[in-house]
Amino acid sequence: QVQLVESGGGLVQAGGSLRLSCAASGRTFSSYAMGWFRQAPGKEREFVAAISRSGGNTVYADAVKGRFTISRDNAKNTVYVQMNNLKPEDTAVYYCAAKILGTVNSVGYLYTGQYEYDYWGQGTQVTVSS
């Protein structure tokens, strides 16, 4: 199984920046497509960003496009999301997720649905004040 641990959340003023990290266990990190999701109180978990196994393909939710950047360092078993120009509506618990892939032609695949992922981290709180 895969263990995921998020870090980097905190309190920031509107317009500020944060970088979240997600460290994964195991030695097959390069076989995982990764994603970031978020959930605000009383709301359903929503997609934020995803990155392919290779890191060559990325996709973003419209709400964060142009402000957030997802990246990965397979040598460090870590995925990141750089969040710039934060808005109060970005306030949520942020979760990273992993999808295990087993085919050699999956290096460019992306996944945006929460039910497509196999493993989840515990979440890290991001609060943006106005």
Helix content: under 10%
Structural class: mainly beta
- Residue fraction in strands: over 45%
The unreliable regions are none
Compute the number of helices: 0
Helix and strand element order = EEEEEEEEEEE
What is the 3D form? globular
Number of strands: 11
Could you walk me through the main structural features you see in this protein, from its secondary elements to its overall organization?
- The protein is mostly beta strands and 130 residues long.
- Helix content is 0%, strand content 47%.
- Strand 4 (32-39) and strand 5 (46-51) form a beta hairpin.
- The model has no long low-confidence stretch (mean pLDDT 95).
Any descriptors?
mainly beta; four-stranded antiparallel sheet; 47% strand; globular
